[in-house]
Amino acid sequence: MGALDAFITSTLGLTKAPPYLGTCALAFVGFLLVHQVLAPWGSRRWAPGAFGKLDGGRGRNAWSIHVVSQLHALIIVPYALWVIAHESAAPDRAFGWDENVGHVHAIACGYFLWDSLDAVVNYTDAGFVVHGEFAFYSYERVEADVGLVFGVGIACLAIYTLSYKPFVAYYGVRCLLWETSTFFLNIHWFMDKTGRTGSRAQLVNGFFLLSAFFGVRILYGGMVSYDFLHTLVQVRREVPVVYVLVYGIGNFVLTSLNWFWFYKMISALRRRFSDEDDGVRKHHRHEERRRLVNGNGAAHGDGDVHVDAEEGIVRSTGAEGVGVRAGYGTR
């Protein structure tokens, strides 16, 4: 480990990284184990119907990905909150360091490493429905080139790895709180896959999803992004220009994408439940036509009356034969 530590600290300049390599490795192995073994096993045991109906290996892999994503959110958000609550009173936002930040960032690095490798291994032959940060997997099928997905995973991994120089670790732990919305997003996805699409439970979860996304990513995230840019401007002469450009542009892009995703999520939810309401209204109109026709009676005897809603006519089949007459089932 001495040579590895020397390479990481001297060559890469990640002076704070060596004590946290074990945490990162354990996180990576843990998420990989859940993805490959525990999630499929548990899903076959506790959700055999929904898991069995998924479209082959690709669909089941997506299910396991969401299990890992949910586990990561359940771990990283409470841990990040605890770290923020126990940090020093006046931390150095640009170059400060806290050993608790090191551990929470190590878990995030393990997750992003797993995520990037999964994109390469499982999605190298076709478009990939993006998950995690590109969270519309739960609402719409958003196809993206695997290179983009791999690039996003590598970018997140690089950003959190560079925090061990140390640099802007203060903001890294705060951005992990964005995963709060991922918790509700994964629930929404699982409801879709278990036959609860358009249900009241999904509507309630959608309310919490939008509230969490707006509160954590738009409001809180906007304040963090503003403070981050302010810090970046203050230290622009103390760091390489490429740092200022990469972090500054990246911050702007992610903030813009949060607004774009929020708009798309609202549109998707509105469309989904509007479609459900339209279906209910059409069913009620059909039943009303049937009641009106049945109330008028059959053409002859005790025959059956059928409404052809598309043609606007009533077909009567009775003891005297088959007849067609104008009815109440108009357009």
Distance between the termini: 78 Å
Helix content: 55-70%
Q: Report the count of strand segments.
A: 5
Number of helices: 10
- Spatial sequence of strands, sheet with the most strands: 3-4-5
Order of helices and strands: HHHHHEEHHHHHEEE
GO biological process, one term: lipid homeostasis
Membrane topology: Multi-pass membrane protein
Subcellular location: Membrane
Pfam families: TRAM_LAG1_CLN8
Top keywords for this entry?
transmembrane helix; 331 residues; TLCD; membrane; 2 domains; TLC domain-containing protein; mainly alpha
Structure in a nutshell:
This protein has 331 residues and is mostly helical.
Note down, in words, how this protein is organized:
The structure is a single chain. The protein is mainly alpha-helical and 331 residues long. It has 10 helices and 5 strands, in the order H-H-H-H-H-E-E-H-H-H-H-H-E-E-E. Strand 3 (304-308) and strand 4 (313-318) form a beta hairpin. Helix 2 crosses helix 5 and helix 4 (56-85) runs antiparallel to helix 8. The protein is globular, with a radius of gyration of 27 Å. It holds the Pfam family TRAM_LAG1_CLN8. One of its GO terms (cellular component) is membrane. Residues 58-274 form the TLC domain.
